[in-house]
Amino acid sequence: MIIGSLSKRRFVLKKHSGRSKGKVTVRHQGGRNKRFFREIDFNRHIKEGVQGTVVAIEVDPNRNARIALVHYTDGDKRYIIAPNGLKIGQKVMASENASLEIGNATALSKIIIGTQIHNIEISPNKGGQIVRGAGSVAILQGKEDYYVLVKMPSGEIKRFNPQSWASIGQVGNIEVANQRIRKAGINIRRGIRPTVRGVAQDPHSHPHGGGEGRSGVGLKYPKTPWGKPAVGKTRRHGKYSDKLVVSGRKLGKHH
Q1: What's this model's pTM, rounded to 2 decimal places?
Q2: 146 to each of 94, 108, 150, 166, how far by Cα in Å?
Q3: Are the C-beta atoms of 104 and 168 separated by less than 8 Å?
Protein backbone atom coordinates (compact mmCIF):
# COMPACT_ATOMS: atom_id res chain seq x y z
CA MET A 1 0.00 0.00 0.00
CA ILE A 2 1.53 3.34 -1.08
CA ILE A 3 0.47 6.65 0.39
CA GLY A 4 0.92 10.24 -0.79
CA SER A 5 3.89 11.74 -2.61
CA LEU A 6 6.51 9.87 -0.58
CA SER A 7 6.48 7.08 -3.18
CA LYS A 8 7.59 3.78 -1.60
CA ARG A 9 8.91 5.37 1.59
CA ARG A 10 5.72 4.72 3.54
CA PHE A 11 3.71 1.48 3.52
CA VAL A 12 1.77 -0.79 5.85
CA LEU A 13 4.16 -2.86 7.97
CA LYS A 14 3.15 -6.50 8.22
CA LYS A 15 3.21 -8.19 11.62
CA HIS A 16 4.07 -11.88 11.97
CA SER A 17 3.92 -11.91 15.80
CA GLY A 18 7.28 -13.62 16.20
CA ARG A 19 6.17 -16.76 14.39
CA SER A 20 7.71 -18.73 11.55
CA LYS A 21 5.43 -21.31 9.89
CA GLY A 22 3.12 -21.05 12.91
CA LYS A 23 5.84 -21.78 15.46
CA VAL A 24 6.88 -19.16 18.01
CA THR A 25 10.48 -18.18 17.28
CA VAL A 26 10.49 -14.86 19.18
CA ARG A 27 8.69 -14.79 22.50
CA HIS A 28 6.58 -11.96 23.92
CA GLN A 29 5.27 -10.75 20.56
CA GLY A 30 1.61 -10.64 19.56
CA GLY A 31 -1.06 -8.66 17.74
CA ARG A 32 -0.77 -4.88 17.63
CA ASN A 33 -2.38 -1.84 16.12
CA LYS A 34 -1.90 -1.27 12.42
CA ARG A 35 1.17 0.85 11.70
CA PHE A 36 2.95 2.27 8.71
CA PHE A 37 6.65 1.81 8.03
CA ARG A 38 8.59 4.96 7.20
CA GLU A 39 11.83 4.46 5.31
CA ILE A 40 14.50 6.48 7.14
CA ASP A 41 17.56 7.89 5.38
CA PHE A 42 20.31 6.58 7.64
CA ASN A 43 22.83 6.80 4.78
CA ARG A 44 23.18 10.55 4.37
CA HIS A 45 25.83 10.08 1.64
CA ILE A 46 23.03 9.65 -0.89
CA LYS A 47 22.14 13.36 -0.69
CA GLU A 48 25.70 14.63 -0.32
CA GLY A 49 26.00 18.28 -1.31
CA VAL A 50 22.23 18.76 -1.70
CA GLN A 51 20.61 21.19 0.71
CA GLY A 52 17.36 20.23 2.38
CA THR A 53 14.67 22.00 4.39
CA VAL A 54 12.88 20.46 7.37
CA VAL A 55 9.13 20.71 6.66
CA ALA A 56 7.76 18.49 9.43
CA ILE A 57 8.75 16.62 12.58
CA GLU A 58 6.64 13.48 13.01
CA VAL A 59 6.05 10.58 15.39
CA ASP A 60 7.25 7.23 14.04
CA PRO A 61 5.43 4.20 15.54
CA ASN A 62 8.43 2.00 14.74
CA ARG A 63 10.95 3.85 16.94
CA ASN A 64 11.01 6.05 20.03
CA ALA A 65 12.91 8.85 18.27
CA ARG A 66 11.12 11.56 16.30
CA ILE A 67 11.70 11.77 12.56
CA ALA A 68 12.01 14.83 10.35
CA LEU A 69 10.66 15.09 6.81
CA VAL A 70 13.20 16.88 4.63
CA HIS A 71 12.49 18.40 1.20
CA TYR A 72 15.66 18.69 -0.88
CA THR A 73 16.34 21.26 -3.58
CA ASP A 74 16.43 18.52 -6.24
CA GLY A 75 12.78 17.66 -5.46
CA ASP A 76 13.48 14.55 -3.38
CA LYS A 77 11.79 13.99 -0.01
CA ARG A 78 13.31 11.88 2.75
CA TYR A 79 12.95 11.14 6.45
CA ILE A 80 15.91 11.53 8.81
CA ILE A 81 16.28 11.00 12.56
CA ALA A 82 15.32 14.28 14.22
CA PRO A 83 18.03 15.51 16.63
CA ASN A 84 17.16 17.54 19.70
CA GLY A 85 16.69 21.20 18.79
CA LEU A 86 15.94 20.67 15.10
CA LYS A 87 13.28 23.17 13.97
CA ILE A 88 10.79 23.24 11.11
CA GLY A 89 12.17 25.45 8.34
CA GLN A 90 15.78 24.73 9.27
CA LYS A 91 18.28 23.94 6.50
CA VAL A 92 20.27 20.68 6.70
CA MET A 93 23.21 19.47 4.66
CA ALA A 94 25.23 16.27 4.29
CA SER A 95 28.70 17.06 3.02
CA GLU A 96 32.41 16.71 3.77
CA ASN A 97 32.43 20.49 4.21
CA ALA A 98 29.15 20.82 6.10
CA SER A 99 29.14 23.09 9.15
CA LEU A 100 28.85 21.42 12.56
CA GLU A 101 25.23 22.47 13.07
CA ILE A 102 22.45 20.27 14.43
CA GLY A 103 21.00 18.05 11.71
CA ASN A 104 24.00 18.17 9.39
CA ALA A 105 26.07 15.09 8.57
CA THR A 106 29.76 14.78 7.77
CA ALA A 107 32.80 12.52 8.15
CA LEU A 108 34.17 11.86 11.64
CA SER A 109 37.53 13.24 10.53
CA LYS A 110 35.88 16.65 9.96
CA ILE A 111 34.22 16.81 13.38
CA ILE A 112 36.00 18.60 16.20
CA ILE A 113 36.67 16.93 19.55
CA GLY A 114 33.86 17.28 22.09
CA THR A 115 31.04 17.44 19.51
CA GLN A 116 27.83 15.53 20.21
CA ILE A 117 26.97 13.06 17.41
CA HIS A 118 24.49 10.31 16.55
CA ASN A 119 23.61 7.95 13.66
CA ILE A 120 27.23 6.77 13.38
CA GLU A 121 28.48 4.51 10.60
CA ILE A 122 30.39 1.41 11.69
CA SER A 123 31.90 1.10 8.22
CA PRO A 124 32.20 3.93 5.64
CA ASN A 125 29.29 4.22 3.17
CA LYS A 126 27.24 1.59 5.03
CA GLY A 127 24.84 4.04 6.63
CA GLY A 128 24.36 4.91 10.30
CA GLN A 129 23.77 1.84 12.47
CA ILE A 130 24.36 2.92 16.07
CA VAL A 131 23.31 5.74 18.45
CA ARG A 132 19.86 6.15 16.89
CA GLY A 133 17.48 5.74 19.86
CA ALA A 134 15.64 8.62 21.52
CA GLY A 135 17.93 10.67 23.76
CA SER A 136 21.04 8.79 22.63
CA VAL A 137 24.23 10.75 22.13
CA ALA A 138 27.90 9.94 21.56
CA ILE A 139 30.80 12.33 21.97
CA LEU A 140 33.86 12.52 19.76
CA GLN A 141 36.57 11.95 22.34
CA GLY A 142 39.85 12.19 20.42
CA LYS A 143 41.79 11.37 17.27
CA GLU A 144 44.63 8.94 16.55
CA ASP A 145 46.75 8.31 13.46
CA TYR A 146 44.29 5.91 11.84
CA TYR A 147 41.22 6.06 14.07
CA VAL A 148 38.78 8.45 15.71
CA LEU A 149 37.83 7.81 19.35
CA VAL A 150 34.15 8.06 20.22
CA LYS A 151 32.59 7.79 23.67
CA MET A 152 29.43 5.73 23.31
CA PRO A 153 26.20 6.24 25.31
CA SER A 154 27.22 3.24 27.47
CA GLY A 155 30.46 4.96 28.47
CA GLU A 156 32.55 2.69 26.26
CA ILE A 157 35.26 4.38 24.22
CA LYS A 158 35.60 2.89 20.76
CA ARG A 159 37.71 3.41 17.64
CA PHE A 160 36.05 4.30 14.31
CA ASN A 161 37.26 4.80 10.77
CA PRO A 162 37.77 8.55 10.19
CA GLN A 163 35.92 8.21 6.86
CA SER A 164 32.75 6.98 8.58
CA TRP A 165 29.99 9.57 8.75
CA ALA A 166 27.87 10.76 11.65
CA SER A 167 25.09 13.28 12.19
CA ILE A 168 25.53 16.25 14.49
CA GLY A 169 23.57 16.57 17.74
CA GLN A 170 21.71 14.41 20.23
CA VAL A 171 18.73 12.32 19.16
CA GLY A 172 15.50 14.08 20.15
CA ASN A 173 12.55 13.02 22.33
CA ILE A 174 14.85 12.88 25.35
CA GLU A 175 11.95 12.68 27.81
CA VAL A 176 10.85 9.27 26.49
CA ALA A 177 12.76 7.62 29.36
CA ASN A 178 10.39 9.32 31.84
CA GLN A 179 7.17 8.09 30.23
CA ARG A 180 4.99 5.71 32.22
CA ILE A 181 3.35 2.70 30.62
CA ARG A 182 0.28 3.26 32.89
CA LYS A 183 -1.46 0.01 31.95
CA ALA A 184 -0.73 -3.33 30.29
CA GLY A 185 -2.93 -2.46 27.32
CA ILE A 186 -0.45 0.14 26.07
CA ASN A 187 2.24 -2.49 25.56
CA ILE A 188 -0.28 -4.95 24.14
CA ARG A 189 -1.21 -2.42 21.44
CA ARG A 190 2.47 -2.11 20.61
CA GLY A 191 2.67 -5.85 20.02
CA ILE A 192 4.47 -6.63 23.28
CA ARG A 193 2.98 -9.62 25.12
CA PRO A 194 3.43 -10.25 28.87
CA THR A 195 6.56 -11.92 30.26
CA VAL A 196 5.81 -14.73 32.71
CA ARG A 197 8.30 -16.06 35.30
CA GLY A 198 9.61 -19.53 34.65
CA VAL A 199 8.67 -20.80 38.14
CA ALA A 200 5.04 -19.78 37.48
CA GLN A 201 4.80 -21.99 34.38
CA ASP A 202 4.18 -25.69 33.94
CA PRO A 203 7.17 -28.05 33.56
CA HIS A 204 6.48 -28.57 29.85
CA SER A 205 6.80 -24.85 29.14
CA HIS A 206 9.87 -24.00 31.21
CA PRO A 207 12.60 -25.94 33.08
CA HIS A 208 11.82 -23.91 36.22
CA GLY A 209 8.13 -24.83 36.16
CA GLY A 210 6.14 -27.43 38.04
CA GLY A 211 6.28 -28.57 41.66
CA GLU A 212 3.79 -28.39 44.48
CA GLY A 213 3.25 -24.93 45.91
CA ARG A 214 5.85 -22.23 45.51
CA SER A 215 9.22 -23.51 44.39
CA GLY A 216 12.54 -21.92 43.56
CA VAL A 217 14.70 -22.43 40.52
CA GLY A 218 16.38 -25.63 41.75
CA LEU A 219 17.66 -27.99 39.03
CA LYS A 220 21.37 -27.32 39.72
CA TYR A 221 21.45 -23.92 38.00
CA PRO A 222 19.05 -21.35 36.46
CA LYS A 223 18.13 -22.20 32.87
CA THR A 224 16.67 -20.49 29.85
CA PRO A 225 13.33 -21.74 28.48
CA TRP A 226 15.40 -23.96 26.20
CA GLY A 227 17.43 -25.55 28.98
CA LYS A 228 20.69 -23.63 28.46
CA PRO A 229 22.61 -22.01 31.36
CA ALA A 230 21.14 -18.60 32.15
CA VAL A 231 23.87 -17.31 34.51
CA GLY A 232 27.59 -17.81 34.89
CA LYS A 233 29.34 -19.39 31.94
CA THR A 234 26.86 -18.67 29.17
CA ARG A 235 27.33 -18.87 25.41
CA ARG A 236 28.23 -15.22 24.89
CA HIS A 237 31.21 -14.86 22.58
CA GLY A 238 33.40 -11.88 21.79
CA LYS A 239 32.52 -9.62 18.88
CA TYR A 240 34.72 -8.85 15.91
CA SER A 241 34.73 -5.20 16.97
CA ASP A 242 36.07 -5.86 20.48
CA LYS A 243 39.58 -5.13 19.22
CA LEU A 244 38.44 -1.53 18.52
CA VAL A 245 37.32 -0.93 22.11
CA VAL A 246 39.74 1.30 23.99
CA SER A 247 37.90 1.37 27.32
CA GLY A 248 34.97 -0.86 28.27
CA ARG A 249 31.76 0.38 29.80
CA LYS A 250 32.52 -1.46 33.06
CA LEU A 251 35.01 0.25 35.37
CA GLY A 252 38.46 -1.23 35.17
CA LYS A 253 37.80 -3.07 31.93
CA HIS A 254 40.40 -2.16 29.33
CA HIS A 255 41.34 -3.72 26.03
Answers
A1: 0.84
A2: 23, 12, 13, 17
A3: yes
Length of the chain counted residue by residue? 255
Distance CA 134, CA 10 (A): 21
- Chain centroid offset of residue 7 CA: 25
User: What is the number of other CB atoms lying within 10 angstroms of the CB of residue 22?
Assistant: 5
Structure confidence by residue, pLDDT tens digits, 71-126: 999 999 999 999 999 999 999 999 999 999 999 999 999 999 999 999 999 999 99
Q: Cα separations (Å) of 217 from 87, 112, 205?
A: 53, 52, 14
Return the DSSP state at 187: H
Distances (CA, A) of 198 to 149, 193, 208: 42, 15, 5
Burial of 121 (0-12, 13-18, 19+ CB in 10 A): buried
